[in-house]
Design a protein that fits this description.
This protein has 341 residues and is α/β, with parallel strands linked by helices. The protein has helices spanning 25-36, 59-65, 80-90, 109-118, 152-161, 163-169, 191-196, 209-219, 244-265, 268-293, 300-322; strands at 2-3, 14-21, 44-51, 70-73, 95-99, 103-104, 125-131, 176-177, 186-190, 224-234. α10 runs antiparallel to α11 (300-322).
Length: 341
């Protein structure tokens, strides 16, 4: 279902903002208010909200309160990538601006994103600095996963070895830096490039889809740019921290999505080695956490830890039986259920 209301737009290229929502209505309100307050001189803005079947009765209220916003009700919760692609299919813009519902966009951010991408080659992606509600900046020096960076220790080693280059390339006084990938919470891309990249990869139900998109864009010659002089507020956890069951499910997808990424972007013996190492690392990690959770058996975080262990064990059994690394929730998995609750 799509509900669209006309809005007077200024002259210039059309930018379509796509927001995927799942029961994050309070934070979505702040996001929409910030977007509707955007200063645009050289562009016009279209706002599309795709609701991944929240099924809580809130959407009609928002349709009434935000008549200039396009609301699309998805048929089910088929994941972040599917929601983004659904919104992009409805978009009329020359540029696509994907933002999470738990973000707040400064007045001049969209104009500056547009100015930045105009001087970058095709298939480029532009993002901004992200600031949490408690004033903490997100890390900007992001690298594509390697076999030895699948653990926290490995990542620390990689950063230590490359510390001089990182300090130079990601100096805080630089307006623009170039990480290997940027978070999917803020993605600005040309619409034509997005289509040629075949959009977001729906093999990912949640997480790592941003790493995958940036990887594919880079392979086509695009640059991944991050504007350090623009700060978008990112209030984490809008729809992924509702209760222990939901939290365990989303944390499971962190592990699963990494397997999907390795399956797509490695090959031969290196794929076998990295998948095996990541299975061992993941099982050791969640098993230890589950054992420790027995010390505080009734605590919600302890319950989440045990559910996470159970989810991951079931996933690895499914990998063996179904011969696929895809999440059972992925639309491309032959046994994928429709999740609406």
């Amino acid at each position: 279902m799509t509900v669209q209301n006309p809005k007077h737009l200024t002259n210039g290229p059309l930018i379509s903002t796509v927001i995927v929502n799942y029961r994050s209505w309070d934070k979505l309100r702040a996001c929409l208010d910030s977007l509707l307050n955007t200063n645009l001189v050289h562009a016009k803005l279209e706002i599309i909200v795709v609701d991944n079947c929240s099924d809580d009765g809130e959407m009609n209220t928002f349709i009434e309160q935000y008549p200039s916003v396009i609301f699309v009700l998805n048929k089910g919760n088929f994941g972040f990538s599917n929601g983004c692609n659904t919104g992009a299919d409805k978009a009329n813009g020359d540029y696509l601006f994907f933002v999470n519902p738990d973000t707040e966009v400064p007045k001049d951010a969209v104009e500056q994103l547009l100015s930045a991408i105009l001087v970058l080659p095709p298939f480029s992606i532009v993002a901004t600095q992200k600031l949490s509600e408690n004033g903490k900046y997100e890390r900007v020096e992001r690298f594509f996963p390697l076999w030895y960076t699948i653990t926290g220790l490995g990542k620390s080693f990689h950063r230590f070895v490359n510390r001089k280059r990182i300090a130079k390339d990601f100096a805080k006084n630089k307006k623009i830096v170039y990480p290997e990938w940027v978070s999917g919470s803020v993605i600005f891309i040309r619409h034509i490039d997005f289509k040629q990249l075949d959009g977001w990869n729906e093999q990912f139900w949640m997480y790592s889809e941003d790493v995958d998109l940036c990887k594919r864009a880079s392979l086509r010659g695009g640059k991944i740019a991050l504007l350090q002089n623009i700060e978008i507020i990112h209030n984490h956890g809008g729809s992924s921290r509702i209760n222990p069951v939901t939290t365990a499910l989303t944390k499971s997808e962190v592990y699963i999505s990494r397997h999907v990424y390795f399956s797509d972007h490695t090959q031969g013996i290196s794929r076998y080695v990295i998948q095996t190492l990541f299975v061992l690392k993941s099982l050791l990690e969640v098993t230890l956490i589950a054992i420790l959770s027995l010390l505080a058996f009734k605590h919600p975080k302890a319950k989440m830890a045990r559910l996470l262990f159970s989810n991951l064990i079931r996933y690895y059994l499914g990998v063996t039986l179904n011969h696929t690394w895809l999440s059972p929730r992925s639309r491309r998995h032959k046994h994928a259920p429709q999740i609406t609750k």
